[in-house]
Automatic annotation (TrEMBL):
Residues 38-90 are annotated as: Disordered. Residues 103-149 form the LysM domain. CDD domains: LysM. This is LysM domain-containing protein.
Length: 155
């Protein structure tokens, strides 16, 4: 038996629902496409670079002579001190002579003998020879110590 009551369809002894069907889809909209031609530039060829003459190869430096075992160390000629400017470990102000050459330096806090030698462009051994009052190869310098920088004098 089939009976319809309020949107419910009864078939035999079973129950079936008929209200779950989706609504029909609307008609598709009409789309108009207009094709326009775009200008494509023609590529220009890349110019070939002109060859540049290579600079001449530098001349090789002469090789240093091979060291000879037990050869005496090279002699470093003493020379005047040149102030290269304050640096870490040598921040004090030197005393200058009339020609502007440094002749004396007073050790300030944070100074080391090695850095003082570096600042004044002197080998540490030369600075030690110029300052016999410095002991322990310059390991111990104290605030207020006067360092001679005049290479013509000792002490």
């Amino acid at each position: 038996m089939i009976a319809v009551a309020g949107g419910i369809v009864v078939i035999g002894t079973g129950l079936a629902l008929s209200g779950c069907v989706p609504a029909p889809a609307p008609a598709p909209a009409t789309v108009t496409v207009a094709v326009t031609e775009t200008f494509t530039p023609t590529p220009t060829p890349t110019p070939t670079p002109t060859p540049v003459a290579e600079p001449p190869a530098p001349e090789p430096e002469p090789e240093a002579p091979a060291p000879v075992p037990n050869d005496p160390a090279p002699v470093i000629e003493p020379g005047p001190a040149v102030d290269l400017g304050a640096r870490d470990g040598a921040n004090g102000t030197p005393v200058l002579d009339g020609a502007g050459m440094p002749i004396n330096y007073v050790v300030v806090s944070g100074d080391s003998f090695f850095d003082i030698a570096q600042r004044f462009d002197l080998p540490q051994q030369q600075l030690l020879r110029m300052n016999p009052q410095i002991h322990d190869f310059g390991e111990a310098v104290y605030i207020g110590d006067e360092i001679n920088l005049d290479w013509t004098k000792t002490g």
